[in-house]
Each structure stands twice: as structure tokens, then as C-alpha cells.
Design goal:
Blueprint (H helix, E strand, L loop, with lengths): L6 H5 L3 H14 L6 H14 L3 E5 L2 H11 L7 E5 L4 H9 L3 E5 L13 H4 L4 E7 L8 H11 L2 E5 L7 E2 L2 E2 L6 E5 L13 E5 L2 H10 L4 E3 L2 E2 L10 H11 L2 H18 L14 E2 L5 E4 L3 H10 L27 H9 E4 L7 H12 L3
Helix pairs in contact: 2-9, 3-9, 4-5, 10-13
The structure holds pyridoxal-5'-phosphate (PLP).
Pyridoxal-5'-phosphate binds next to α4 and α5.
Length: 362
């Protein structure tokens, strides 16, 4: 059986380091907003090549607090890709703003910059891009359009730790960037965790207050904030894993190359390879018209796969009353996409065997 993922397996290489850290962590007795959070923030800032990082409780909060920090008029519009994970859309609603869905490009599954202009109104304040599956959005075009219309840009980097466009890391193009360290992510904690990355010093101060009850000085509340602190224990674990992130992404790229070189079925659309983009393959998705029977066939042949995602936001039960439009590109992706195993738990032989099995599908 080739599993889709095994989080125990992913974390096994760090067991000894985690255990040593945990023992000293317990004895130190400082469990909230201590040196681990502070050091992780510095180290992650350095990793991304940005100026500031503020640890928060999870990726959804990173998005919501980013939006809140901008102090936008209630009901302001935020452009969001129509095929994103629900958290992106939910953050806009939680911040009291209006999500406006814009279709992705069918080749790279990210926001189509050529469709942004038509969606901009006098109420539009933010373009919220998502580097889906670990693949960079066309940020140079997005930033140009944002500047032209005076819009903020927020990057949802929950799937793209270490991804690059022309040598520049995800999270360093927009005004604010939100990361999730949910255990399955490319940089995953052993629980919930997230962070906001930015070059803006003023917003950094405000976001630090917002995550901690809106307080800059203990017991004095400057803003109506949140309890959304990055957990001190998770920060310590993330520091250990961050050192290995490039090697982790490198290994996934090696496995992706095996897929690219060996899948040759005419029934399968592979992910696009774009010049200047370093993809971290959080997910290796293919598309197939007969997706459901392919998934079933792989399962019968001992290969587990996932679907990211089966239902687009505008068709979700709790959300569909908000969205009136049609989003055919997004629907096409949701109906045909399949995520293949691509984890550090897999050997090259595992991936070759997945390729062979796929090539025999008819
Ligand atoms: C995982 C994810 C999030 C949310 O992260 P959590 O830590 O689960 O809150 C947001 N956006 C995208 C694209 C994600 O994949």
C-alpha cells in the first residue's frame, strides 16, 4: 500500500531533537510568547527574506488579522480566487469584508491576472492571492494591477513555504502574507500554528497587539483584538523543522521530477512548469476527465490519493447564498483534479510505481 501521507513518518526524523527540546521546554516553565516564538519569528523572517514576522495561532487567523490590521471600511471588497481552500474566503467574511471571487488560470490554478481589472469596483480594497498547491501566482502582474488601482495585496502562503518567483520567496511580494503551519503543510507543526510576514513596521506593531487582546502594554487594550498567539511549544518545534525546509522541498521536487518524466498517459494533464517559478509541491495534482474512476482504480491497486478540493467555495452549503455568479474554470478544476502521493515518506520507487499504474489506466 502506498499511503497518501503519514504525519508520524514525516516527523520521525526529528524525534530526537523534538524530545530533547520538549524536556527543556517543560523545565523552563515559560509557555506563552517567550524566546521560542521570538526566535522563530526572526528565523522565519530571515528564511523568507522579509523584514518582520508575527506568529499567530493558525493560518485562518493569519489571514483574518492581516485583513483587520488594514482598518478597511465595512463591506469593502476583497478579490479572492474562486478555487481556493475555504479558509481564504472565510477570513474575508470574519473581517467584515466582502469576498469577490475571480477565476483562476486553468493551467496553473492560480488567480488569473487578466480577469482582475473587470472585478475591481470603487469598493475594492484588497487582492488576496493564494499560491495554491505550492505554485506561485503571477505576482509581478498582480502587483502592477494593484498599484494601478491603489489596492493592498495579501498573499495566502499556507501552501507555499519556500516557493519562489525569479528567486524571490512567496510572502515577500504583497503588503502582508499569511502562513499556516498546520501539520500537513510544507512546514508543519505538531498542532495548529500560523504567522504573518510583512515589510511594514507599523502594521507589524499593530498585528503584534491584535494577536494578544489588542494589547501593547499588559492590561492596556489599544484595539479590540484576538487571542491568537503562536503557541510557544509549536514555535520551538517549528524552529527545529525550519532548518530542514529547503531539503524537504528539494526532496519533493525530486519526486515531482519522477512524475513529470514518467507519466505519459494521454488521459492525464500534468501540472504546468513555468519559467522562473520554484514550485514546492505541497500537492502534486493531475487532472483527468475520469477522475473518480482513476481514483478508484488507484485505490484498488494499493495507491491512496486525495482530492483538493471536491467542492468549490461558491457551491459549499454554508456559503452558496453569498455567491451568485458562475465559475466554470473553478468547477472544471474541482471536477477533474486528483492529488498524487508526494511526501518525504515516499521513496523514488514508490513514485515510479504510481507512474506505471497510472500509465496502465484506460
Ligand atoms: C491550510 C490553509 C489555510 C488555513 O490554515 P489553518 O492553519 O488550517 O487555519 C488557509 N489557506 C489555504 C490555502 C490553506 O491551504
Amino acid at each position: 500500500m502506498i499511503e497518501y501521507e503519514s504525519l508520524g513518518g514525516v516527523n520521525e526524523p526529528y524525534f530526537q531533537e523534538y524530545e530533547t527540546f520538549f524536556a527543556s521546554f517543560i523545565r523552563k516553565g515559560w509557555y506563552i510568547l517567550g524566546d521560542e516564538v521570538k526566535n522563530f519569528e526572526e528565523e522565519f523572517t530571515g528564511y523568507c527574506g522579509a523584514k518582520h514576522c508575527v506568529g499567530v495561532a493558525n493560518g485562518l487567523d493569519a489571514l483574518t488579522i492581516s485583513l483587520k490590521s488594514l482598518d478597511l471600511p465595512e463591506g469593502s471588497e476583497v478579490i479572492v480566487p474562486s478555487n481556493t481552500y475555504i479558509a481564504t474566503v472565510l477570513s474575508v467574511l470574519q473581517a467584515g469584508l466582502k469576498p469577490v471571487l475571480v477565476e483562476p488560470r486553468l493551467d496553473n490554478y492560480n488567480l488569473d491576472p487578466s480577469l482582475i481589472k473587470a472585478a475591481v469596483t470603487s469598493k475594492t480594497k484588497v487582492i488576496l492571492v493564494v499560491h495554491l498547491y505550492g505554485k506561485m501566482t503571477d505576482m509581478e502582474e498582480v502587483m502592477r494591477i494593484a498599484e494601478e488601482h491603489g489596492l493592498f495585496v495579501i498573499e495566502d502562503c499556507a501552501q507555499s513555504h519556500g516557493a519562489m518567483l525569479n528567486g524571490k520567496k512567496a510572502g515577500t511580494f504583497g503588503h502582508l502574507s499569511a502562513f499556516s503551519f498546520y501539520p500537513t503543510k510544507t512546514l508543519g507543526a505538531l498542532g495548529d500554528a500560523g504567522a504573518i510576514v510583512t515589510n511594514d513596521s507599523e502594521l507589524t506593531g499593530k498585528i503584534k497587539a491584535l494577536r494578544n487582546y489588542g494589547s501593547e502594554k499588559k492590561y492596556y487594550n489599544k484595539y479590540i483584538g484576538y487571542n491568537s498567539r503562536l503557541d510557544e511549544l509549536q514555535a520551538g518545534l517549528l524552529r527545529i523543522k525550519l532548518k530542514h525546509l529547503d531539503a524537504f522541498n528539494g526532496y519533493k521536487n525530486k519526486l515531482a521530477t519522477i512524475y513529470f518524466e514518467n507519466i505519459c498517459s494521454p488521459l492525464i494533464t500534468l501540472p504546468v512548469k513555468e519559467p522562473g517559478k520554484y514550485d514546492v509541491f505541497h500537492i502534486f495534482n493531475i487532472r483527468c476527465k475520469k477522475r473518480d474512476s482513476l481514483k478508484q482504480y488507484l485505490q484498488e491497486n494499493g495507491i491512496k490519493t486525495e482530492i483538493h478540493y471536491p467542492v468549490p467555495p461558491h457551491q459549499q452549503e454554508g456559503y452558496r447564498h453569498i455567491f451568485a455568479g458562475n465559475y466554470p474554470v473553478s468547477e472544471e478544476i474541482h471536477n477533474t483534479t486528483l492529488s498524487l502521493p508526494i511526501s518525504v515518506i515516499h521513496t523514488e520507487a514508490d513514485i515510479i510505481s504510481v507512474c506505471k499504474t497510472i500509465n496502465n489506466f484506460s
